[in-house]
Specification:
This protein has 176 residues and is an alpha+beta fold. The chain is 29% helix and 8% strand. The protein has a domain at 20-115.
Length: 176
């Protein structure tokens, strides 16, 4: 599937907040060795594009501040009455650079095999686990999923839930 980038124009069939070239540049600059840099073959391009779409799907589920600029759209951005981390208004025809960066970061994780929206056996509520002679136990308040602390840092201030004291992203929810 071809990438259709949401650039603030509310493109009807948009499916990502970041173009492949943006992801290549962002991830390359940060040394994500598992994200192949151009030139690459068509199969790798297709995997990278799928990762960008899946990252955007994840981000579209989050509770952003403001409201969608047009109701009935799957894409969460652009938004009306949205504020940045410093309380300044975000243009209603823009996708903030933090959202683009978060898309790139999460696409890099997904390309590397992290499942951002996993199916969780019995809801993922594991009380204890032993494998052979090894066992692991967690503190009662430890999240039951991978933690995406970088997303919390990138997106802080763009949604009220992200700013809860100690709030962190897991691979399916924010825990405060």
């Amino acid at each position: 599937m071809a990438l259709i980038v949401e650039n603030g124009a509310m493109t009807r069939k948009a499916n990502t907040y970041a173009a492949l070239a943006e992801a290549d540049a962002w991830l390359g600059a940060r040394g994500f060795a598992s994200w192949p840099q151009p030139p690459v073959d068509p199969e790798i391009i297709a995997r990278k594009e799928a990762a960008l779409i899946r990252a955007t799907d994840y981000l579209n589920r989050l509770g952003w501040n403001g409201r969608k600029a047009a109701e009935g759209r799957i894409m969460a951005w652009p938004r009306l009455e949205a504020l940045d981390a410093d309380g300044r208004p975000i243009a209603s025809n823009a996708v903030p650079p933090q959202v683009k960066a978060a898309t790139c970061y999460l696409a890099g994780q997904i390309y590397n095999g992290v499942e951002a929206q996993p199916v969780l056996e019995r809801g993922g509520r594991i009380a204890s686990e032993s494998v052979g002679g090894l066992s692991t136990s967690f503190f009662k308040d430890a999240p039951g999923r991978d933690v995406f602390s970088a997303l919390a840092d990138l997106l802080r201030g763009l949604a009220s839930d992200f700013d809860a004291p100690g709030g962190i992203f897991t691979n399916s929810i924010l825990i405060a």
